Amino acid sequence: MQKPNKRLEGQTCIVTGSSDGIGEAVAKAMAMEGANIVINYHSSKEEAEEVADWISKNSDAGNAIVVKCDVSKEDEVKNMFKKTVTEFGTVDVCVANAGLQLDHPLHEMPLKDWQRVIDVNLTGQFLCAKEAIIEFKRRGMRPEVSKSLGKIIHMSSVHEVIPWAGHANYTASKGGLVMLMQTICQEYGPDRIRCNSIAPGAIKTDINKDVWSTQEGRDGMLKLIPYKQIGVPDDIGSVASWLASDESEYINGTTIFVDGGMTCYPGFTANG
Ligand code: BGC
């Protein structure tokens, strides 16, 4: 975890799906930058509260609240933003992070599992971005805290570009995020809203625990990573807090891959 800094002081960040994993690391990293944090969870209330406790003990500037919300439901997303504005006055940064995998070979994939993944990973990110843009425009510029009207960060994946057999719902959702993010950039850049994605590679979280928790799984993952290291959530937290800060002001409409080089197709090192 990085040392306390002040790059987000006076700002408020909503981080969806932040009761554990990558979202938790992003929430903590942004709190260490002095931001107020909205910790959003879907089902793990206790874990979300632990993240809030950690923030109140470790961050000298930022406060945290915990809000339950299924990001695929418009009324719940609206309510999360309403609670945030009531508590902290506005929203400056929205990290649309909540996501899930429900894996099946395509010919066996139930429609409901296709739909649920698209609903959370893609529609949920649309709903959060929409409410964030509405709030940024309502509030107007605050030059004392940021050079941008607001910042949206979509949590994507290397699978926005790498096809992945057995995961068509997941790859389709992440591929969709590319165009969502770039279109938001084009549409709202003139308002000084910055919209970018972070694409993590193999990061040790619950989503892929069945793989990295065995030696065989770890070896398989490492074959896909030129840097020969499996990532940890803090690798994403530090990039996200920088991407939300004015230090990255001119970055807009792009995906930052945080993957140890996974997108450089190491399978081709000695083949092809
Ligand atoms: C997936 C993980 C996977 C990683 C690299 C992520 O988007 O959620 O399960 O390990 O991509 O393939």
Give an overview in words.
By secondary structure, the protein is α/β, with parallel strands linked by helices. The chain has a single domain (12-204, 232-265), classed as 3-Layer(aba) Sandwich (Rossmann fold). Helices cover 43% and strands 14% of the residues. The protein has eight helices and seven strands; from the N terminus they run βαβαβαβαβαβαααβ. 46% of the residues are buried. The site of beta-D-glucopyranose has 8 residues, from loops. Residues 101, 157-159, 201-202, 207-208 line the site of beta-D-glucopyranose.
Keywords for this entry:
seven-stranded parallel beta sheet; globular; alpha/beta; binds beta-D-glucopyranose; 272 residues
Classified in CATH, the superfamily is NAD(P)-binding Rossmann-like Domain
CATH topology: Rossmann fold
Report the span from N to C terminus: 40 Å
How would you name the oligomeric state of the polypeptide chains in this document? single chain
Helix percent reads 40-55%
Shape: globular
How many structural domains are formed by the residues?
1
Spatial arrangement of strands, main beta sheet = 3-2-1-4-5-6-7
CATH class division: Alpha Beta
Strand fraction = 5-15%
Run of helices and strands:
EHEHEHEHEHEHHHE
Average pLDDT figure:
97
Rg from Cα: 18 Å
What is the strand tally?
Answer: 7
* Count of alpha/pi helices: 8
User: What is the CATH architecture term?
Assistant: 3-Layer(aba) Sandwich
The bound ligands are:
beta-D-glucopyranose
